[in-house]
Amino acid sequence: MSTEIKKKIELEVVHVLFLDIVGYSKRLTNEQQTLIDQLNQVVRSSEEFQSAQEAGRLIKIPTGDGMALVFYKSPAQPVECALEISRALKAYPELRVRMGVHSGPVSAVTDLNDRTNAAGIGINIAQRVMDCGDAGHILLSQRVAEDLAQYGEWQSQLHDLGEVEVKHGARVHVFNLYNKELGNPEVPAKLRQFKGQTNPAVARRGEELWVAVLPFKSSGDAEMESFADGLGEDITTGLSRFRYLSVVASASAARLKGGTGGERALGAKLGARYVLEGSIRKGGSGIRVSAQLVDTQTGTQLWAETYNRDLRASSIFAAQDDIADRIVATVADSYGVLVHSMRAAIRQKDDADVTPVEWQFQYFAYREQITPAAHGALRSRLEHAAEREDRQSDLWACLAQIYVDEYAFGFGGDANSLDRALAAARRAVEIDRSNQFAMVALAQTHFFRQDLAAFGPAAERAMALNPLNTDALGILGLQIVHTGEFERGTAIVRRAMELNANHAGWMHFAPLWQHFHKGEYERALECANRVDVPGLFWPYLVMASACGHLCRRVEAAAAVRDLLALDPEFAAHARSNVGTWHFASGLMDPILEGLRKAGLSIPENRSADPPR
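Structure (tokenized):
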């Protein structure tokens, strides 16, 4: 008979902090160990942890990818500890942690090695509460929130998210704990799958547009079934990285596997406006994946694509990753069919009813045809919206981008344009450090302020937040090209273009400048002809300069005419326009030299430039 000592301490109510590392299972073994070591270091640095440990009133339970901490004094202990951990995690951006807190009964057990452990519903519910969150969230059960709400210092930090279904069909009522510095103010993805709920936090966001990934159909063999399940989960995860999309959780969509009914019926069951579905067929060593995006309200097929892969050339996992990445990038990108359809759905909304997420759609629409009139109109509307809702990261990020464009494209800006951009971008990041759109705005602001030491880290952080956002990759990759890192920047932009065949035409500027840098003017001209941004003078500038270098006078003269038709005074401020972007690339002089050869009379020195 086992000599294990089952010495049970009387059941009592305790206060549990459960935490784990988001995305832990996808890391390599050595990376997992590093993350656990970092998490242990962060937790041990908590004063609340140290105090409870010294008093002998703390149980620590490792869980592989995280831990449970059991406190005995009050529900404020695990919450204070969670805030201290959240503060310390700012020094570890790669360590993405979520936390849940609950008060409930547990029993302690001492095993053969005299190690104290604990079990019971109190720990189980703490884990369920944590499971509802995303990286950065500190979620509380209703019991804990109600206890803390009796004290004024906590009331402003408690935000009711309502009920959510968890494991085995049970429901828990959760609260989100955050303040100006700590926690994650966004509604967790799991909460966003309950479209019809009257939860005030979701209602405030006004997110009535949802997308669900239905289980992919397969040929039936076990390997393809596994491939189909994994592909659906990876696509759902990838779509969830885009803040402006509300994505139905994989677990909810998986319940419809093998279900009958068309896209409209299945979408209605999930509360989804859009559904992405597909099938997988296998023949020999080859597989064919077909995918389509359907608007369930109209029955319209918005997009469809077929992907063929030979498993002799790559592993099944590599094929799964590659196809999932391409589907996500193509569908969810700011230029993609999903965003275009969602934009159309809100076109008739009054500004007062447009949500912060939807303001991004307004900005994306403006970006497709950048003109002074469109810029001025959107800037005015955004400023009014920011006055109404000053704690919305997306709104401040949009404003920062508009102020950057004011400077970058010379849209009637002044000497303070970049100061306003920096203030707005910092505000956006301060509200939510996980907002990629905000980090892109901050990186761009640093670039145009010519602060490359600050630009580099901000750009890297922005790209890491969502490596499938081809718009962000294109923007930042192009700016890396403008810093003089032609090979690296072009590689980033080419990756964006490869992921999304429907990429924006301006991305061709990256290889264009790389060719120009090498003196390959013919190839630069080929790239310039692929840029399709109406009203933008840069393609004509490149054509004029490249043809000037190539001594193709007739074509150079035609490009100059097109350039001056857009801006009759271009020659007078050509140096300023080119220098705004090419202050660090080393291309300013070759560009201006080509323009002079094309027939433009450009001043030789900076003193002749008019002020911006």
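The radius of gyration is 27 Å. The mean pLDDT is 84.
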